[in-house]
Specification:
four-stranded mixed beta sheet; alpha+beta; Immunoglobulin-like; Glutaredoxin; 18% helix; 2 domains; globular
C-alpha cells in the first residue's frame, strides 16, 4: 500500500498546485495578464533548491524581479535535460529563448569559471500560452552547480540563478543504460481498460506491449509513466495525450507504451491512500525520488533497449519527435 502522509502531500504538491493555479489564472484571463494566485518563489518544492535572483549587491531592480522554478530534480553527472519555468511579478515568462551559463561551484580553484554556455528553448503546454524552458546541459561532475539564466524581455535584460545538486548517478535509468525488464500490463492481461489506466478515454494502442517485450525486440520505443486522473500536476493527462498524438505518426517504426503510475487505478476511487505503485515505477527508480507521488516521466529507448532520452515532467511533441528522430 502506498503510504502518503499529509506532510508529504503538501511538500511535493506545492509546485504542482502552484503551476495549476498559474495555468488556470493565466488561461482564463481574457487579456492574458492575470496575476498568478501563488507567488513563484514559494512554489519550489523542498526536494529542489530554491532558485534565487542575481546577487543582491549586483542586481538591478529589473534583474531582481526574475525568478525560476526548477522542474528537474533527478540529476546525475553527465548530459542532462534541465527544465524550468521563469516568472516575474506580472506573469510567467514566454520569450522564445533564454541563455544559460553553467558554473561548477565545488571547484575551489575557479568557482566562477563558466563551464558551458547553452540556449534554453521555450516549449508551450498544450492548453493556453504558458510552458517551460528546456536545455541540454552537460553537468560532468557530481556536486553543487549553478545555472545563471538570462533573457531579454521588453527591452530589459533580466537574469536569475538556479542552484543544482548533481549526484554521481541519477535514480532513474541513466542515458545509455538498459532499464529493468519489468513486466507491465497489456490488453491481454485484463478484462477491462480501467485496470490499465485512469484515463477516461484510453488509447488501447498504448497497452499492446509490455516493457519486458519492447526492451528486447529490436525496435525503438517510447515509454510514458503518468496517471491521467490522479496526478497532482496539471500536465500528466496532456502528456499522455501528446504521446497519443505522435504515436499515430510513428507507430510503424516505434513501440509506444503507457504505464499507469498506480497498479490498481480501478479501485482508488479518488483516495490515493488506496493506491499501489505499478512494479515498473519502483524498478525504474521513480518511487525512489524524494517526495515522489505520481508526476509523469517519458523515456525513449533505441533498438538495443538503451535509454537515449528521458524527460522529467512535461515534454512537448517537438521534444519527443526530436528524440525519436535520433533512434528511428
Amino acid at each position: 500500500m502506498l503510504a502518503m502522509s499529509l506532510t508529504k502531500w503538501v511538500k511535493r504538491g506545492v509546485l504542482s498546485l502552484a503551476l495549476l493555479a498559474m495555468a488556470m489564472a493565466l488561461a482564463c484571463g481574457g487579456d492574458g495578464t492575470a496575476t498568478p494566485s501563488v507567488e513563484a518563489d514559494t512554489a519550489t518544492p523542498d526536494a529542489a533548491p530554491e532558485a534565487v535572483s542575481a546577487t543582491p549587491e549586483e542586481a538591478t531592480p529589473e534583474q531582481a524581479t526574475l525568478k525560476a522554478i526548477l522542474a528537474t530534480i533527478d540529476l546525475g553527472a553527465g548530459p542532462n535535460r534541465v527544465s524550468f519555468l521563469l516568472t516575474t511579478p506580472r506573469s510567467l515568462v514566454t520569450v522564445p529563448m533564454a541563455s544559460i551559463d553553467s558554473y561548477y561551484r565545488d571547484d575551489a580553484s575557479s568557482p566562477d569559471a563558466v563551464k558551458e554556455s547553452v540556449q534554453a528553448t521555450f516549449h508551450p503546454w498544450p492548453y493556453g500560452t504558458r510552458g517551460n524552458y528546456v536545455a541540454d546541459v552537460n553537468l560532468d561532475q557530481p556536486g553543487q552547480w549553478e545555472l545563471v539564466v538570462s533573457i531579454e524581455d521588453e527591452g530589459k535584460s533580466l537574469s536569475t540563478a538556479i542552484p543544482l545538486q548533481v549526484e554521481e548517478t541519477s535514480l532513474t535509468p541513466s542515458l545509455g543504460a538498459q532499464p529493468p525488464l519489468t513486466p507491465t500490463k497489456t490488453v491481454r492481461d485484463v478484462g477491462d481498460p480501467s485496470e490499465l489506466t485512469s484515463s477516461s478515454m484510453p488509447d488501447l494502442d498504448l497497452y499492446q506491449h509490455s516493457i519486458e517485450e519492447i526492451v528486447d525486440n529490436g525496435r525503438p520505443a517510447l515509454v510514458v509513466f503518468a496517471s491521467p486522473a490522479f496526478c497532482t500536476s496539471p500536465t500528466c493527462g496532456p502528456q499522455v495525450e501528446t504521446v497519443q498524438g505522435i504515436k499515430d505518426l510513428y507507430q510503424e517504426d516505434v513501440d509506444f507504451v503507457h504505464v499507469e503510475v498506480y497498479d490498481n487505478p480501478q479501485t482508488i476511487q479518488g483516495d490515493l491512500n488506496r493506491g499501489e505503485y505499478a512494479p515498473a515505477v519502483r524498478t525504474w527508480g521513480l518511487s525512489e525520488l524524494e517526495d515522489y507521488l505520481n508526476e509523469s516521466w517519458v523515456f525513449i529507448l533505441d533498438r538495443e533497449g538503451r535509454v537515449t532520452r528521458k524527460y522529467e515532467g512535461f515534454a512537448s511533441a517537438d521534444e519527443l519527435e526530436q528524440g525519436l528522430a535520433e533512434v528511428i
